């Protein structure tokens, strides 16, 4: 049967393939420690769960507006104002079924044959996958260890051509845990004044997961690009709600109705009780967020210390998110081969760096959204494996 050509260009997120393989090995009796998938190991806070249950009991079973219930869009705008002091109109907020939907919408909006889209490498694999699906040319923006895994404004701007239509940035970053300093963001925004045709999608899904006194630099703070800025955020990471499939985006006036029309065509609306849960997440107590981030901070310090004790491995300290991206080039292993062997032979699930881009070779990704006990057991197994040569 003949298929549409674009579908042959779609990639995938290998973390889910690793998750499936880890599950199969666990079902066969292997003791598997999963440091591969990027999701908090905490449950969704009880008040959020209860809000969804109440919504169901109150009869919230029908369609909602395609862009999200008004109260939730207002709460998103109020939350951004509270945290960053930046005014956002609820009329620019779109509630979506997961962060990937914002990526899909933005890349589909700008991508077509003959145009360039810039994206981080190493970076979230769906960026490149969707760019290639549209027929646009994916242009990797190098994310380098020597820059603390933040982007270089100078290098990023040097890659922009007259064909560039969209720039994707991500800080705090997946998979490296890097946080781009404000000075670099300032330089990037200043340089974008020379490229008014370039829209920007800022993936800020990890914006509350920062450490060592780092503060999040949201691109909402730059009025000179607000008319071409698409903000991606959501509830999955911050409130341990990965399975609820909830995200939001902020769109400029000229693009909002286009995104709304895609919502109507593609998913109609986000399920009603989940939206009431999201409303409670933003307006209810925030203690659970701080407690979770504090736990991640302790795990971060532990995993970096332990990884740096492995033969042939070095790991800089991530400043954000919940990932470590150790350099394994001195082990003699190719990254994907090492990740596969660690899973099959020791039961430790990690992700090979090339699954996040060509510049990921020489690295593997570990999620420290796992218990300290599991982190210690996993790295001990890794040590035994690498020590065998």
TrEMBL record:
<keyword id="KW-0808">Transferase</keyword>
<comment type="similarity">
    <text>Belongs to the class-I pyridoxal-phosphate-dependent aminotransferase family.</text>
</comment>
<dbReference type="InterPro" id="IPR050596">
    <property type="entry name" value="AspAT/PAT-like"/>
</dbReference>
<dbReference type="InterPro" id="IPR015424">
    <property type="entry name" value="PyrdxlP-dep_Trfase"/>
</dbReference>
<keyword id="KW-0663">Pyridoxal phosphate</keyword>
<dbReference type="InterPro" id="IPR015421">
    <property type="entry name" value="PyrdxlP-dep_Trfase_major"/>
</dbReference>
<dbReference type="GO" id="GO:0004069">
    <property type="term" value="F:L-aspartate:2-oxoglutarate aminotransferase activity"/>
</dbReference>
<keyword id="KW-0032">Aminotransferase</keyword>
<dbReference type="InterPro" id="IPR004839">
    <property type="entry name" value="Aminotransferase_I/II_large"/>
</dbReference>
<protein>
    <recommendedName>
        <fullName>aspartate transaminase</fullName>
        <ecNumber>2.6.1.1</ecNumber>
    </recommendedName>
</protein>
<dbReference type="GO" id="GO:0030170">
    <property type="term" value="F:pyridoxal phosphate binding"/>
</dbReference>
<dbReference type="InterPro" id="IPR015422">
    <property type="entry name" value="PyrdxlP-dep_Trfase_small"/>
</dbReference>
<dbReference type="Pfam" id="PF00155">
    <property type="entry name" value="Aminotran_1_2"/>
</dbReference>
<dbReference type="GO" id="GO:0006520">
    <property type="term" value="P:amino acid metabolic process"/>
</dbReference>
<feature type="domain" description="Aminotransferase class I/classII large">
    <location>
        <begin position="31"/>
        <end position="381"/>
    </location>
</feature>
